[in-house]
Write a structure and sequence with these properties.
alpha/beta, three-stranded antiparallel β-sheet, 18% strand
C-alpha cells in the first residue's frame, strides 16, 4: 500500500496537468494572449483586510510588515499582474508621510504614529523592482463613522475644517458642493504626486451616499445651486472636483494616470435595467460625461455582478469610453463561500468576454482572494489567462510619440550561466523621464516582439540587464530590447 499511494498521487497530478494543458490549448486557439493589458488588483489596508497583519512597533515588526507586502507583490509578479492599486488614503487618514492628515492606526496601532518607514514609498519602490505599476488608491468623500472621527481627536478633519464636513446618519463626509472641498482633496493629491514616483492616482468613493435625499447640503445648495435641480447640482459638483484634480495633476506630472472606481452600472441600457442601482441616478456620478470630457485616463467600474447584470453594462462602458481605458473591477470576493459562493466559471466567462471585446484590462477585488486561490482563481490566472506577461496599454491621447529604439545591444554569456545585456540608452520627447526597457528572449531569430510569451522583463531602468534563467535548459539564444515611455508608447526593437 505504501508504494501504491505515491503512484496514485502521481497519476492524479499527471491527469490534472493534462487537463489544464488542454484547457490552455482551447483558450489560446480562441483568444490569443494580448501583449497590452492592464492586470490590476486592489491591496486593501482599511481594517487590515489585505495588509498589514503585523504592527510596526519594533524593528522586527517593521521588517515583518514590509515582508508581508513584498510577499504579496512576489505572488502577483509570479502570476504576471502588472498593476497594484495600493490603498493610500482611507477615511481621513493616510498610509504615507503627510503634512495634512495622520497616519492610519492600522500601521502601528496608534493614529498618527510613524511606522518607521514610508509605506507608500516602499510600495512604489517594490512594485517598480518587479516591473509593476503602483497607483495611489485614495478614498475621497467618506470620512468614516462618527466613532472613527472621534478616535482621531484633534487630528480629525471635522475638527480642523468643519465647514467642509457633513454628518449623515452615522458617518461624516466631505461636502462635494463646498468650493473648498476640491482644494482640500487636491492638497493631499499634490503631496502624493509631487513627493512620490506614483504611476497613477485612483479616486474611490467620488460619489454621494446612496439615495441621500436628506444629505445635509441644503444650505450649500441654496448658496451655489444657481437654478439647477439638486440632482444636477450634485452631479456638477463631482464633475468639478474631478476636473480640478485631473487638470492639476497633469500640470505637475502629465504621465500620472488619473482614474476612478465608479458604481459598476452607469444607467439603464436600452435593453437591460440597472434595477434601481446605478452611478448616474443613485450616487450622482456622471461618469460617461467624465469620459467624454477627457478628465479620466482610466475607469475601474465596480462590476461585481453576474450574467446580464455584467455583460451588457460592460459593453455600455466600452462603447462610451472615448478611447480611455475601461478596466472592469471583477468581484472575485464573491467566490468565497462566506460572500456569495459564486462558481469559478462565472469569472472565466467574464474574463473571456473581456478578451473577446478587446477591453483593455481587468482588476480583481481584492488581493487576498487572489492569493488565497479562492476556488482556484490564482491558478486560473497564472496558468491560463495570465500565462504570459503583458505591457501597459498606451495613453495615446496624452502622448503618442515612442522613444527612440535602443542601440548596439550586446549579449555576453558569463561563466556562471548568467547572460549580461548592455545597450545604448534611448531618448524620449518628454525629457523629464528616461525611458524604461522591455527585454525579450527567444530560441529563434529574429525574436518576435509581438508575442508576449517572449517578454522576460519590463520596467528595466539603466542600460544593463542580467538575464538569469531559472534552469539551464531554459536559457534563450536570442534577445531583443525596446524602450517604453511613461505614457506606454513602445519603440522599435533592437536585436
Amino acid at each position: 500500500m505504501r508504494n501504491v499511494i505515491p503512484f496514485l498521487i502521481a497519476i492524479f497530478l499527471l491527469v490534472g496537468q493534462t487537463n489544464l494543458r488542454a484547457q490552455h490549448f482551447f483558450y489560446e486557439q480562441t483568444y490569443p494572449l494580448p501583449k497590452y493589458e492592464v492586470r490590476a488588483t486592489w491591496i486593501t489596508s482599511v481594517y487590515g483586510l489585505d495588509w498589514p497583519k503585523t504592527r510596526a512597533t519594533t524593528p522586527q515588526g517593521i521588517r515583518r510588515q514590509k515582508e508581508e507586502l513584498t510577499a504579496i507583490l512576489d505572488r502577483l509578479k509570479e502570476a504576471n499582474f502588472n498593476t497594484v492599486l495600493f490603498q493610500t488614503r482611507t477615511r481621513g487618514d493616510v498610509l504615507f508621510r503627510s503634512d495634512i492628515e495622520p497616519m492610519n492606526s492600522i500601521l502601528t496601532g496608534t493614529t498618527g504614529k510613524d511606522p518607521g518607514y514610508d509605506p507608500l514609498a516602499f510600495a512604489i519602490e517594490e512594485c517598480h523592482k518587479r516591473g509593476m505599476e503602483c497607483h495611489a488608491w485614495m478614498v475621497t468623500i467618506p470620512l468614516g463613522s462618527k466613532k472613527h472621527q472621534q478616535s482621531l481627536g484633534k487630528l480629525s478633519l471635522t475638527k480642523k475644517k468643519p465647514a467642509i464636513c457633513v454628518p449623515y446618519r452615522t458617518e461624516y463626509f466631505l461636502n462635494p458642493g463646498h468650493p473648498e472641498t476640491k482644494q482640500y482633496l487636491f492638497s493631499l493629491v499634490r503631496e502624493v504626486v509631487t513627493k512620490y514616483d506614483v504611476d497613477g492616482v485612483h479616486f474611490d468613493y467620488l460619489r454621494y451616499p446612496e439615495h441621500a435625499r436628506k444629505f445635509a447640503d441644503q444650505a450649500t445648495f441654496n448658496k451655489y445651486g444657481k437654478g439647477r435641480t439638486l440632482e444636477q447640482w450634485r452631479k456638477d459638483n463631482l464633475t468639478e472636483i474631478l476636473r480640478y484634480l485631473y487638470t492639476e495633476v497633469k500640470k505637475i506630472k502629465p504621465w500620472v494616470k488619473v482614474s476612478t472606481s465608479p458604481i459598476g452600472k452607469y444607467r439603464d441600457t436600452s435593453r437591460y435595467s440597472s434595477k434601481g442601482f446605478n452611478a448616474y441616478d443613485i450616487v450622482h456620478q456622471d461618469v460617461q460625461g467624465w469620459l467624454a470630457e477627457g478628465i479620466q485616463d482610466q475607469i475601474y467600474p465596480m462590476m461585481y455582478f453576474r450574467e446580464n447584470a455584467f455583460f451588457p453594462f460592460l459593453l455600455d462602458w466600452q462603447e462610451q469610453s472615448n478611447g480611455r481605458h475601461v478596466i472592469p473591477g471583477l468581484g472575485i470576493y464573491f467566490l468565497d463561500p462566506k460572500e456569495g459562493n459564486w462558481k469559478i466559471n462565472e469569472i472565466v466567462r467574464q474574463l473571456n468576454f473581456i478578451r473577446e471585446k478587446n477591453v483593455p484590462g481587468m482588476a480583481h477585488y481584492r488581493v487576498q482572494h487572489v492569493l488565497n486561490n479562492t476556488q482556484g482563481v490564482y491558478d486560473l490566472l497564472q496558468n491560463a489567462f495570465y500565462q504570459a506577461p503583458a505591457l501597459q496599454p498606451a495613453m495615446t491621447w496624452l502622448d503618442n510619440t515612442p522613444p527612440s529604439a535602443p542601440k548596439r545591444l550586446k549579449v555576453k554569456h558569463e561563466s556562471d550561466g548568467y547572460i549580461r545585456l548592455t545597450w545604448e540608452a534611448s531618448t524620449d520627447n518628454d525629457k523629464r523621464n528616461a525611458p524604461r526597457y522591455v527585454i525579450y528572449a527567444s530560441d529563434t531569430y529574429p525574436v518576435d516582439t509581438n508575442d508576449p510569451r517572449h517578454i522576460v522583463a519590463q520596467g528595466v531602468t539603466g542600460t544593463e540587464y542580467v538575464y538569469v534563467p531559472l534552469y539551464p535548459w531554459q536559457t534563450k539564444m536570442f534577445f531583443a530590447i525596446t524602450a517604453v515611455d511613461r505614457y506606454g508608447n513602445e519603440s522599435n526593437c533592437e536585436q
